[in-house]
Design a protein that fits this description.
The structure holds two protein chains of two kinds.
Chain A: H1 4-8, E1 18-22, E2 25-28, H2 29-47, E3 52-56, H3 61-72, E4 76-79, H4 86-95, E5 100-103, E6 118-119, H5 124-127, E7 144-151, E8 157-163, H6 164-178, E9 185-188, H7 195-207, E10 210-213, H8 221-228, E11 233-236, H9 238-247, E12 260-263, H10 270-279, E13 284-290, E14 297-301, E15 315-316, E16 320-325, E17 338-344, E18 350-351, H11 355-361, E19 362-363, E20 366-375, E21 381-386, E22 391-393, E23 396-398, H12 400-408, E24 413-423, E25 427-436, H13 441-455, E26 464-467, H14 481-491
Parallel strand pairs in A: 1-10, 3-4, 3-5, 4-7, 5-6, 9-10, 9-11, 11-12, 12-13, 25-26
Antiparallel strand pairs in A: 1-2, 7-8, 8-18, 13-14, 14-15, 16-17, 17-20, 19-20, 20-21, 22-23, 24-25
Helix pairs in contact in A: 2-3, 6-7
Chain B: H1 3-17, H2 38-52, H3 58-63, H4 67-78
Helix pairs in contact in B: 1-2, 1-4
Classes of the chains: A alpha/beta, B mainly alpha.
């Protein structure tokens, strides 16, 4: 009957050590635990348990206290990225019987008028009215602690339902190989509404360590933060490291307190991995792989193998069976290509209100990731592509369909296909390839950019627009996205 | 700084953020203006570097926390500061 929050604070609820360090000052474990309990008991008294409650915030004390209080109260935290478009948000609000909203004040304008039962960082205190014991009956296997909305390949947001048991299992597995202790302190730039960011929150609280929250305007500021707060760990997606390498003096720094780096959220090109491990030979570099549907983590490559197995995502983490299966459903032989599948207590309960999509993703208790991979003679896995039509940019999953539909809504456009091309900063850059309906390409470009800028979150806005007279087609007369991508890459950045 | 330069700096700022020029003044700040996020900031930096053929130091990229500072810092580079 363990509530995930009780599990997290099991060893540290009476600790006077810091848990969060950031623009809100230093927050200790006892102080956070007390607030979480007070807010949770107020939520339980007001709304009972088992209801979805929305949370939109950047990484700050408000997010952490609200998130943990919602889960502790036996309700479900529905996490939404602050960059969400109004249309997507309206869709979620319509389909989810939300009983309350926790919204950082800065994002209140996403809502038309303030919905009832809205709490901001200013009103959080009014919910904390003293601690009293209250029952939070949870069934760890069944009860959903968190729903994280993520882009599916069709463009519709899918709500990944994670149970208390999922969260506990993945936290245990990650701690099993990262070996975090209470002296660990991670510098956090990844958002907590994203599964990788959330895993930092979970593992550090469970270990009794601390987190430095960096929400600054430019990533280069982490170098100062790591040194100033003597951080022992740093976590990033490919674009995090690419920006640090390309735009800051990162590689010439010593970062003496830092023990390790972790990297997940897509494939960081080998040349960057090499540059980082060459620059920091004494520090560990963990290449990892995961999915929101797997709570966060599925595999890691032990750091001592990073040169020998360059480009590999390693093998399954403790508690996860990770296998690459061929089309016959059997594990592939070295050199063959198949789909990465996973089994374990960290695999989601399913997609919210979407049994069909759940039945496609989870078959016979096995989660099909949609990522294509090969294995080497020693069983190490190498991702080679994706079977789903998804672009990964800046750590975000982006559905090309959503952007294509938007661009096609312009009468000046007769065809549009969106592809991701390798990019030094973003991992993949979103490029809209457009077949114009008439002449005047400059005008069309301006119209497309203006529409995308006002409708889409910034990471989905195309970085470039390319014009084409005819799309390359495959044998079934569909646009051949791979060939199109190759053509665009050949044209180069200037088109 | 010349009026022309200021106009170009503002035009680029508004184009990258996808906002109308009337929504932006010197006090428009990263912390409270929702369209201005870290990703947009990176694009802004690249656009200014390309447009004016300059290259910012990291501390200056971090210091551009409101539009007034953006203008001041970009102008400093253009004028060889």
């Amino acid at each position: 009957m363990t509530n995930f929050v009780d599990y997290l604070f099991e060893n540290s609820r009476l600790s006077s050590r810091p848990v969060l360090i950031g623009s809100d000052g230093v927050i200790t474990y006892t102080s956070l635990y007390n607030t979480v309990n007070e807010v949770a008991s107020a939520l339980f008294a007001e709304y009972g348990s088992g209801n979805p409650i929305l949370l939109i915030s950047e990484n700050n004390y408000f997010f952490v206290a609200s998130y943990l209080a919602i889960i502790k109260s036996g309700n479900t935290a529905v996490l939404v990225e602050p960059r969400i478009g109004r249309k997507d948000l309206a869709e979620i609000v319509k389909n989810c019987p939300l009983v309350a909203y926790f919204v950082q004040e800065k994002f209140l304008d996403l809502f038309e008028g303030s919905p009832v039962d809205t709490y901001t960082e200013k009103s959080l205190g009014s919910l904390a009215r003293g601690v009293f014991e209250f029952p939070t009956p949870v069934h760890p296997k069944e009860d959903v602690a968190v729903i994280i909305f993520t882009s599916g390949s069709t463009g519709t947001k899918k709500g990944v339902m994670l149970t208390h048991k999922n969260l506990i299992a993945n936290t245990e597995s990650i701690l099993g190989y990262l070996h975090l202790t209470e002296s660990d302190r991670v510098c956090v730039v990844l958002p907590f509404f994203y599964c990788y960011g959330a895993s930092l929150l979970h593992t550090h609280i469970r270990a009794g360590g601390s987190m430095v929250l960096n929400n600054k305007i430019f990533l280069g500021s982490v170098i100062n933060d790591i040194n100033h707060y003597e951080c022992t760990g740093f976590a990033g997606v490919p674009s995090t490291y690419q920006i640090l390498v390309n735009r800051t003096p990162f590689l010439t720094e010593e970062l003496p307190s830092l023990r390790y780096f972790t990297q997940a959220g897509g494939q960081l090109p080998n040349k960057y991995i090499r540059m980082i491990v060459d620059a920091f030979p004494q520090k560990e570099f963990f290449v990892m792989y995961g999915a929101t549907e797997a709570t966060a983590r599925l595999s890691y490559l032990p750091p001592h193998l990073v040169r020998e197995k360059m480009g590999s995502i390693g093998m399954g983490i403790p508690g996860v069976t990770l296998e690459v299966l061929g089309s016959n459903g059997m594990p592939i032989k070295p050199g063959e290509v198949g789909e990465i599948t996973a089994m374990g207590d960290n695999i989601m309960k399913g997609y919210y209100n979407d049994p069909e999509a759940t039945a496609v993703a989870i078959r016979d208790g096995r989660y099909y990731t949609g990522d294509l991979a090969t294995v080497d003679e020693d069983g190490y896995i190498y991702v080679v592509g994706r079977s789903k039509n998804i672009i990964k940019s800046g750590g975000y999953r982006i559905s090309p369909n959503e952007i294509e539909d938007l661009v096609l809504s312009l009468k000046e456009v007769s065809g549009c296909v969106v592809v991701g091309v390798p990019d030094d900063v973003m991992g993949e850059a979103v490029i809209a390839v457009v077949q114009p309906a008439g002449a005047g390409r400059d005008d069309v470009s301006t119209k497309i950019m203006s529409l995308c800028n006002t409708t889409l979150p910034s990471y989905k806005v195309p970085r470039g627009i390319e014009f084409i007279d005819d799309f390359p087609l495959n044998s079934s007369n569909k646009v051949d996205r791979n060939r199109l991508k190759a053509m665009i890459m050949e044209r180069g950045p200037q088109g | 700084m010349s009026d022309d330069q200021n106009a170009v700096i503002k035009r680029i700022f508004c184009e990258v953020l996808g906002v109308d020029e009337s929504e932006v003044d010197d006090s428009t700040s990263y912390n409270s203006f929702r369209p201005w996020d870290s990703l947009k900031h990176l694009q802004l930096v690249s656009m200014y570097e390309d447009e004016f053929d300059i290259e910012f130091e990291m501390d200056d990229i971090i210091a551009m926390e409101n539009f007034g500072l953006v203008k001041e810092i970009v102008t400093g580079y253009i004028n060889g500061g």
